[in-house]
Specification:
The chain contains twelve helices and 14 strands. It is α+β, with helices and mostly antiparallel strands and 378 residues long. The strands form four sheets. Strands 2-1-14-13-12-11-10-9 form an eight-stranded antiparallel β-sheet, with helices on both faces. Helix 1 packs antiparallel against helix 12, helix 2 packs parallel to helix 8 and helix 2 crosses helix 11. It is an enzyme of class 3 (hydrolase).
């Protein structure tokens, strides 16, 4: 019940997806005991530490488990900032849908219209791919993080410690994908590709004349007062309060554990470079699902999903995943994986019950179990 929605590609453990649809459920008594137990179980399974915040009709609940720093033994903080990886995609999609609502683009526009000649080579043709197909991963464009050389350079130990401060431009990341054949003809199947959202960020820049980062700040971060949320660009550190981030930097889940807190997130670009915390993510997804960021037409488009065989009882919309939990509750959101950080953020369709959490490790732990515990009480 997993799909690779992180930046981690084929060289690291897949993280569980987050989820979707209308309904409200609260754990028995609203005490979140099951959620706490699931967090503790993740730590027992090998995750260094977990931080989580939930908001429901009983109020706001926050908790931590495990360590934020393996060297000192310091615990995690409920206020921790952390790298959110592919949760960035929901922010990017929201901006593109806002631009559509303003009449500045159409999701049926081709990539070639806005980025002529960029998606070309080995069978790729941006003139045959729409912006909608970028956002719901039906474009067929090769995922640059699945490139073997990229994986060795940035996800395995020797390459990571030599290259973690490198700056990569969006154009360079797309060029890596263009050295491979497409996964399939546009619109004929589904495959998660970080390249899609690097291109989406480039389109935002072409349409607005501003970087995708500045548009996210102006349109989402500042209006919602997301004080812990940032688009770091090439900044290699995570603001405080924060914990250390850990990885095996290997294709196995055993062996030494490395501190990977510092890295240049330009390798993720608009597919996954953002930083936030649990409270901010809850506020963002609640505002989004309540229609405070998009008109109803665009929110409906965002919530129109395609079937994903890799995720039972789930569908992928436009940067938003909808999944039915075992107790019948639907939650909407996304997850994110990047070096040393596995995050999930979900909310019910009415925005009344939300949960966001982070593991400060990328090789173990059951994200699904934490979500099931919070919304189904088990």
């Amino acid at each position: 019940m997993s799909v690779r929605t992180g930046l981690v590609g084929a060289t690291a453990v897949a993280v569980a997806v987050v989820l979707g649809g209308p309904a409200v459920a609260v754990p028995a008594g609203g005490d979140h005991a099951s959620t706490r137990q699931a967090m503790d179980a993740a730590v027992k399974d090998g995750v260094p530490g977990v931080t989580a915040t939930a908001k429901d009709r009983h109020g706001t609940w926050s908790a931590t488990s495990g360590a934020g720093d393996l060297r000192t033994g310091a615990p995690r903080s409920t206020a921790d900032d952390y790298r959110v990886g592919s949760i960035t995609k929901t922010f990017v999609s929201t901006v593109l849908l806002q631009l559509e609502a303003e009449g500045r683009l159409s999701l049926d526009d081709t990539v070639g219209k806005w980025l002529p000649g960029v998606v070309r080579g080995h069978g790729h043709d941006g003139r045959a791919i729409t912006l909608r197909q970028l956002l719901n991963h039906t474009s067929g464009i090769f995922n640059y993080t699945a490139d073997e050389e990229f994986g060795r350079t940035y996800f395995l130990k020797d390459g990571f410690f030599q290259h973690r401060y490198d700056t990569k431009t969006p154009e360079q990341l797309v060029a890596i994908a263009m050295t491979h054949k497409p996964d399939f003809a546009p619109g004929t199947s589904w495959n998660y590709s970080n390249t899609n959202y690097v291109l989406a960020g480039m389109v935002i820049g072409k349409v607005t004349g501003h970087s995708y980062a500045s548009e996210i700040r102006h349109r989402i971060i500042e209006p919602l007062g997301l004080r812990a949320t940032s688009v770091p660009g090439t900044r290699v550190t995570v603001p405080h309060p924060s914990s250390r981030a850990y990885s095996k930097l290997a294709e196995t889940t055993t062996g030494p554990t490395y501190d990977v807190t510092e890295l240049n997130p330009s390798l993720a670009s608009s597919a996954g470079e953002m930083i936030s915390n649990s409270s901010d993510l809850n506020r963002f997804y609640t505002a989004l699902l309540r229609g405070k960021l998009l008109p109803q037409k665009q929110l409906t488009e965002m919530k129109t999903t395609v079937k994903v065989d890799d995720i039972p009882n789930a569908g992928y919309g436009l940067g938003l995943i909808d999944r039915k939990l075992t107790c019948g509750v639907h939650v909407w959101g996304h997850d994110g994986g990047i070096h040393g950080s596995t995050s999930s953020a979900v909310t019910t369709a009415d925005g009344r019950h939300s949960l966001s959490f982070n593991f400060n490790g990328d090789w173990s732990g059951d994200s699904d179990a934490v979500i099931e515990a919070e919304f189904c009480g088990k």
